[in-house]
Amino acid sequence: MIVVGLLIIALGAFCQSSCYVPINKIRDWSWESYWIVQGVFAWLVFPFLGALLAVPEGNSLFEAYAAHPADALWTLFFGILWGVGGLTFGLSMRYLGVALGQSIALGTCAGLGTLLTPVFTGNTQDLTFPVIVGVAVTLAGIGIIGVAGHLKSAALSEEEKKEAVKDFNFTKGIVVALLAGFMSACFSIGLGFGERLCFEESADMFKTLPATFLVTVGGFLTNLVYCFYQNARNKTWGDYGKTALYANNLFFCALAGVLWYSQFFGLSLGKGFLTASPVLIAFSWCILMSLNVTFSNVWGILLKEWKGCSPRTIAVLLAGLAVLIVSSFLPQLLK
């Protein structure tokens, strides 16, 4: 059962790392326009449909929130903070590329999310030795990938860097990625506060989905304000009036949205199979993020973001990925 749970989480991570592929198919919309439209699907539509799976017949989703209003407000609040991380997350990939940008941001998010969630929610008993070691190994893997990124930056000419990633800027990208990782960890904290936002009779694999929806609603609000501000500033309101593009752009926004949401849907389902291992339940956030990093670097290789790098750099990158894979199941071996 544990293996099944890990495989489900891995499948969700693979889908998430693939969500930026359909975004490249969106035509003639500014960033702020397509970002908020895909957000409607990623942060509202699909999370709401997922949350309904946790609602028993004869009940409503609102009842789960009304039963614990303080928890619901904290969950929403950390979702709003997570929304800031989502915005800067996109910038980290703009400056570093999909592979390195996601690696640094998600690595920071993995470690801080796993360590800070029990601290904020008062469940410090979850910070066991295996979990702390697992986080340390995950961060070591991220650090190794960061070394590979530095080697790439040092070895390539400015022209080669721009060819792989148009706006490549290693220093600016690292700062933005670290900020994105810190704020993105608020998603995990929000889920921690939302543990009670469910029904007792719901299946274990669906119980975190109502909290997930509340976190994504908070993130949507943050992104809505920023994107509408950019629409006004850049005079791009007209994007929404290009009805001839709706069939293509809405399809790929919806596809990107469902792929993105798959990571948290998979996390919820996967945790339902990990109930026999409290250590892996406590470490599940780190597992998801480390697998996101692994698959994002696979996409980075396929998209030729590491093109022109030396065999040494590629070897360091692969070593970092190997460490991340090991970190996913290491706490179970140490318990």
Derived from helix and strand composition plus strand pairing, the structural class reads mainly alpha
* Helix run count: 13
Shape: globular
Radius of gyration: 19 Å
| H and E order | HHHHHHHHHHHHH
Whole-Å distance between the termini? 17 Å
Query: Could you tell me the number of beta strands?
Result: 0
Q: What is the mean predicted local confidence, pLDDT?
A: 88
Largest sheet: none
Query: How much helical structure, as a percent, in the residues?
Result: over 70%
Kindly estimate the percentage of residues that lie in beta strands according to DSSP. under 5%
Q: What low-confidence regions span 5 or more consecutive residues with pLDDT below 50? A: none
Can you offer a commentary on this structure?
- There is one protein chain.
- Helix content is 78%, strand content 0%.
- The protein contains 13 helices and no strands.
- The model has no long low-confidence stretch (mean pLDDT 88).
Question: In summary, what is this structure?
Answer:
With 335 residues, this protein is an all-alpha fold.
Notable characteristics:
mainly alpha, 335 residues, 0% strand
Strand-helix topology:
Elements: H1 2-17, H2 20-23, H3 31-52, H4 61-66, H5 69-121, H6 129-155, H7 158-164, H8 170-184, H9 186-193, H10 209-234, H11 246-272, H12 278-302, H13 311-334
Helix pairs in contact: 1-11, 1-12, 3-10, 3-11, 5-6, 5-8, 5-9, 5-10, 5-12, 6-12, 6-13, 9-10, 12-13
